[in-house]
Amino acid sequence: MTRADKPLALTFGDPAGIGPDITLLAFEARRATSIPPFVLLGDPGVLAERASALRLSVRIEPIADIAAASSVFADALPVLPLQVASPVTAGRPNSANAAIVQQSIERAVALVRSGAASAVVTNPISKATLASAGFGFPGHTEFLAALAGREASDAVMMLIGEELKVVPVTIHMPLKDVFGALSTERILKTLEITARDVARYFGVARPRIAVTGLNPHAGEDGTMGREEIEVIVPAIAAAQRQGLDVTGPYPADTLFHAEARKSYDVAVAMYHDQALIPVKTLAFDTGVNVTLGLPFVRTSPDHGTAFALAGTGRASPRSLIEALRLADTMRRNAEAKP
């Protein structure tokens, strides 16, 4: 069996959130939306209960070996069983079930790294619930880097909508800590990983990368802050010396309108909300979160657990569907490169 024949490994996410809902709905839409085969790593009983609540007639098939997933997928949702520690109520997060969330991610990564699965797709997690149970990472991105044996700075988060690709240099930290966390070295490393993996996974031989400033008006020549002059411009210059097509820094408030987006393939922003606000504005229902810098493909829906929607039938599977399809496309593009 080639990697092309192997399923995607889909993690469970927080079982009280909309992960079970959108998994079931995506599976139902598999033929109409051309979703590649996937296997869910989670609790079949929780899935069955959620299917009943949503009045979905999805056949759930626990399997002992991931090799059976692709053949099962035509008629049933294949599940590699993991068990919750405590009963699940949709919409009510429970730190007692944090272990299954972590186990699901760990097993998905192990399956892909062993060659048994083709890519990792992750359902939404609750960072607060995991933290209350002692989880030692700010989010998926940092945990995935650790599982891959990489430094946290090696994993770069990219958000993708139909009209925009954007990367934040800093991710899950308080805004007051961003100024101290930014460095020329960190920005340059982000630019290098972004250029390499956009070429690898998206077929853009020499990606055009536009970089935002940190301060209003990109610092206005130092009158509104000197981070652009002292930190960001040196990183851009170093990237240009390497032959990368990098420009900036540009004021963030003028970089994301339609005409500006035509001038670059991917934007690199300085902090979380600077990057995520434009992509979620443009593609709230269809955006995809991608982790660059890993030795495997990982995508995720670009939204959270949405506890208020869990079990109500109002959750949309569109972002998960796009994440599944994009993971398969990225994997194919990488394998097609010489």
Task: Describe what this molecule looks like in 3D.
There is one protein chain. The chain has 338 residues and is an alpha/beta fold. It folds into two domains: 1-155 and 291-338, Isopropylmalate Dehydrogenase (3-Layer(aba) Sandwich); 163-282, Isopropylmalate Dehydrogenase. It has helices at 19-28, 44-53, 69-72, 98-113, 127-132, 140-147, 175-181, 184-202, 227-241, 258-261, 272-282, 318-336; strands at 8-11, 38-42, 60-62, 77-81, 120-121, 156-161, 164-168, 208-212, 245-250, 266-269, 288-292, 298-301. α8 packs across α9. The longest helix has 19 residues, at 184-202.
Question: How would you summarize this macromolecular structure in one to three sentences?
Answer:
The chain contains 12 helices and 12 strands. By secondary structure, it is an alpha/beta fold. The chain has 2 domains: 1-155 and 291-338, 3-Layer(aba) Sandwich (Isopropylmalate Dehydrogenase), CATH 3.40.718; 163-282, 3-Layer(aba) Sandwich (Isopropylmalate Dehydrogenase), CATH 3.40.718.
Radius of gyration: 20 Å
Along the chain, the helix and strand elements come as EHEHEHEHEHHEEHHEHEHEHEEH
Q: Total number of β-strand segments? A: 12
Number of helices: 12
Structural domains: how many? 2
What is the CATH architecture annotation of the largest domain? Answer: 3-Layer(aba) Sandwich
Structural class: alpha/beta
Oligomer classification? single chain
Q: What is the CATH H-level superfamily of the largest domain?
A: Isopropylmalate Dehydrogenase
Order of strands across the main sheet = 3-4-2-1-5-12-11-6-7-10-8-9
CATH class of the largest domain: Alpha Beta
Form type: globular
| Mean pLDDT value | 94
The poorly predicted ranges are none
Q: What fold name stands as the CATH topology of the largest domain?
A: Isopropylmalate Dehydrogenase
How far is it from the N-terminal to the C-terminal residue, by CA?
21 Å
What portion of the residues fall into strands of 2 or more residues? 15-25%
